[in-house]
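Researcher: Please translate sequence to C-alpha cells.
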Amino acid sequence: MHNFDALNLRGAPRCIRDGMANSKRMRLVVNEAPGSLELLCFGTIGGDGEGGGMLADDIAHILRRNSGRPVNVKINSGGGSAFDGISIYSSLVSHNAEVTTTNISMAGSAAAIISQAASPGRREMYDVASLFVHRAAMLSIGNAQDMREAADWLDTVDRQITTALANRTGRPVSAIAKLLAGDGSKDGTVFSPQQAIAEKFADRIISTRSDGNLRSAENHEQRARMLTDISHDQVLAARFDVWRKDTARRHA
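Model: Translation complete:
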C-alpha cells in the first residue's frame, strides 16, 4: 500500500489529502500488486457535516484521476443523501474499468444504491452483512402547498431510486417499488445476504468461516427461498443444530 503523499495527490479533495489523519473521512487505498483502486465507503453518504463521509464530487474526482483502473468499493454505511448516492452510483457505472462493490457490514439507503453500481457479477456481500432499501424521506417546513411540493419531490426521487435498482437487478420497476415501500408495517425492506441473492441485489457471498470461500448466487438462491417461509423459532433451532454439530466435531 502507498500513502497519499507517495501517490502525489496534492490536488485531490481535502477529504482525500487528510484522510489518514481522521478515520471518519473516506479513505483511498491503492493496492500496488493488482494495480487496482480501493474506496472505503464508510460513514454518511454526502458527508456528515464534520468532514466525514463520502462525497459525490470527491468520488468523481478520484475516478477521473484513475481512469482505466479497476476499482473495489467496500461499503459500511447506513446511507445519507439520495442525490449523492445516485451521483456516486452514476460515476461508478460510467467508470471505464471493472467495478466491484463489497458490502462488508451494511449497505443501507443511499449506500444500497451505490452497492448496485458494480460490473456484471461483481456485487459482493459478506455473510455477516445486510442490505436495506426504502423510499426517499426528507424534512420539510411550510404550508400545505409546500408539503405538496415536498411530496412531489419525494415521488421524483423514488422514481430515480427505483430506476437505478431495476436497471442493475433486472427486476421489474413495479417489483422494486414494492420492496422500497415495505410490507405495510414498516418502510423499506432489509435483506440478508441470501435474500439479496434471491432478489438479485447481490451476485456473490463471501464466507467468514475459517474454511470459507467466495460463494456464488447459484449456491445460495435455493437456500434463501427456503428461508422465507420458516419461523424465527425454526431459525434458532437450525442455528443451535449447527452449533451442536460444530462443537461435537471439534471435540471428537
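Researcher: Any highlights?
Model: The CA atoms of residues 130 and 192 lie 5 Å apart.
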